[in-house]
Amino acid sequence: MTADAYLMIRCDAPAAASTDGRCDTEHGWPVRVETHTALRRLLATRGWHRLGRPARDICPDCWKEGHR
Predict the structure, then answer these.
(1) CA dihedral 29, 30, 32, 35 (to 10 degrees)
(2) How many CA atoms lie within 13 A of 13 on its CB side?
(3) I want to staple 15 with a disulfide (CB 3.0 to 4.6 A). Which of 3, 8, 23, 58 is the partner?
């Protein structure tokens, strides 16, 4: 058997349609990085944003729609 772990970042923007109140868009795989910091740096070039304290990750679609 072979197993591998992938780092994922989930969108934390509020979304009324979801059951837990978050957008839950995920991104990570097939991008291969060693740390969440490196993944966030890469996703920033693809339209993802990180806001506030505690920090929240916002996907490009939610950012455009103003869900912050």
Answers:
(1) -10
(2) 20
(3) 23
- CA 14 to chain CA centroid, nearest Å: 13
In sequence order, which residues have a C-beta less than 8 Å from that of residue 12 and are 6 or more positions away?
Answer: 22, 23, 56, 57, 58
Q: DSSP labels for the chain?
A: --------EE---B-TTSSSSB---EEBTB---SSHHHHHHHHHTTT-EEETTTTEEE-HHHHHHT--
Q: How far apart are CA 47 and CA 61, in angstroms?
A: 9
User: What residue type is assigned to position 51 of the chain?
Assistant: L
Question: Is the pTM higher than 0.90?
Answer: no
Confidence class for position 5, pLDDT limits 50, 70, 90 = confident
